[in-house]
Amino acid sequence: MTTAKRDTYTPETLLSVAVQVFNQRGYDGTSMEHLSKAAGISKSSIYHHVSGKEELLRRAVSRALDGLFGILDEEHARVGRAADRLEHVVRRMVEVLISELPYVTLLLRVRGNTETERWALERRRDFDHQVAELLKAAAADGDIRGDVEVRLATRLVFGMINSIVEWYRPDTRGASGREVADAVARLAFSGLRRA
Amino acid sequence: MTTAKRDTYTPETLLSVAVQVFNQRGYDGTSMEHLSKAAGISKSSIYHHVSGKEELLRRAVSRALDGLFGILDEEHARVGRAADRLEHVVRRMVEVLISELPYVTLLLRVRGNTETERWALERRRDFDHQVAELLKAAAADGDIRGDVEVRLATRLVFGMINSIVEWYRPDTRGASGREVADAVARLAFSGLRRA
């Protein structure tokens, strides 16, 4: 667990510690006491920065959501054939997931017990919906196979991407974000079999 | 929550209730008290059937593991080109996951805090390893693309399959096990793009 010196504490480092604790104990199972211990600062020092743990949750999932929604504004997500835009979005989703791993992990584990969690779930559904629309457009163009229902295909591709949070560890000698993104794009669009 | 009449209680119905509670509360968060309440029978009646909650966990994950390992003994998993055997195994994994949904869900959520959980994780790793070996053999035959590392490909395909427990609900009007199995096999082996 990271601890930081009191005098160098910033909202950013506090957020980073909070996300670790949320991911480890679950958001529901985390108290201000746990956050105070993990951060190595008093509860009143935490309240100096934020109104409480729900604000930390909102900031953390916002960071993940901003990363994901930012993808949809990128030129390659807006211009070109739907199938190519979709491939760009899938590749970038993997990159954002890996570069913002603890934040996206937290986002994917949100349950909906508080207002902030329900807001996060709503935003996630909105994102998923926009990606599903891209898949639908690519199917209408005839670029995507017609024998797998769009909603099912979306779920399975998201399942493949989101599963990365379960095993990807940045500190192990393994594939880089770019390599995993290439692998996901190849499997999702062309499959395992050699053409 | 299912409740059953005391006089019709069998080890099978007790197991089915226990798995529901484990999946809802988490295995660690479930007490004999919770199981007794959910089953509508006394704790001593439960002890008449099993030695405790760990035995229920072992029986539940065994049912999932027996289903999965049973696939590897099927003729189409043993005879033929590795890529075709792999495709059979992937398709059947989806079918077993859906037919034994609560049991496989529990298996996938096992954390490793008790001996039974560690045993289950070990058996899961063994299964995953055997599927990875099949993928490796298919790559050696030249039937599987060479530009995605075998371990990474295995993880992503498992990620796609295992994600099904997060959204598949047997009671909603949706795809059948066979339809989901077809979709997974098509996406995993040939990808989204129209050839």
TrEMBL record, chains A, B:
<dbReference type="InterPro" id="IPR009057">
    <property type="entry name" value="Homeodomain-like_sf"/>
</dbReference>
<dbReference type="InterPro" id="IPR050109">
    <property type="entry name" value="HTH-type_TetR-like_transc_reg"/>
</dbReference>
<keyword id="KW-0238">DNA-binding</keyword>
<dbReference type="InterPro" id="IPR001647">
    <property type="entry name" value="HTH_TetR"/>
</dbReference>
<dbReference type="InterPro" id="IPR041490">
    <property type="entry name" value="KstR2_TetR_C"/>
</dbReference>
<dbReference type="GO" id="GO:0000976">
    <property type="term" value="F:transcription cis-regulatory region binding"/>
</dbReference>
<dbReference type="InterPro" id="IPR036271">
    <property type="entry name" value="Tet_transcr_reg_TetR-rel_C_sf"/>
</dbReference>
<dbReference type="Pfam" id="PF17932">
    <property type="entry name" value="TetR_C_24"/>
</dbReference>
<feature type="DNA-binding region" description="H-T-H motif">
    <location>
        <begin position="31"/>
        <end position="50"/>
    </location>
</feature>
<keyword id="KW-0805">Transcription regulation</keyword>
<keyword id="KW-0804">Transcription</keyword>
<dbReference type="GO" id="GO:0003700">
    <property type="term" value="F:DNA-binding transcription factor activity"/>
</dbReference>
<dbReference type="Pfam" id="PF00440">
    <property type="entry name" value="TetR_N"/>
</dbReference>
<protein>
    <submittedName>
        <fullName>TetR family transcriptional regulator</fullName>
    </submittedName>
</protein>
<feature type="domain" description="HTH tetR-type">
    <location>
        <begin position="8"/>
        <end position="68"/>
    </location>
</feature>
